[in-house]
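Example (one chain per record):
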Amino acid sequence: MNGSRPLWIAALLLVGAAGAFWGAGSVPVALLSLASVAAVVALSGVVRRVLGALLVVVGVAAAFTGHWLAVAGGVLVVLAGALLAVLGARMPKIGVGGQKTRARDPEADMWRALERGDDPTDGPADDADPGGRSSNE
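Predicted structure:
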């Protein structure tokens, strides 16, 4: 199974739970579900697993409000929390996987030097005097 697939499944479950809680009139729990989507995407490792355990507790507690939409939302939050608790440490952190080291591009380095206001054609000033003449003249 692709490592990022469970991450997106958990995020979609939480968005669905937020909609169910919103429809049930449990706006604070809906907002908590939406905030946890951002937390799931931003966190990684053990912290994501702890968030999953907390979501299981919140989902169970929210399901006992009695409204059928709240029960559905609670089930979705419990599923997302269980998924995070079990697979949270193996899921990638968003934004890290796409960063690769790039080879240095001399032409791009010259353009960056021009943007900084430096003259990229000036060589190292190891034996040049302030007048621009070399000391060998």
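Caption: The CA atoms of residues 31 and 59 lie 13 Å apart.
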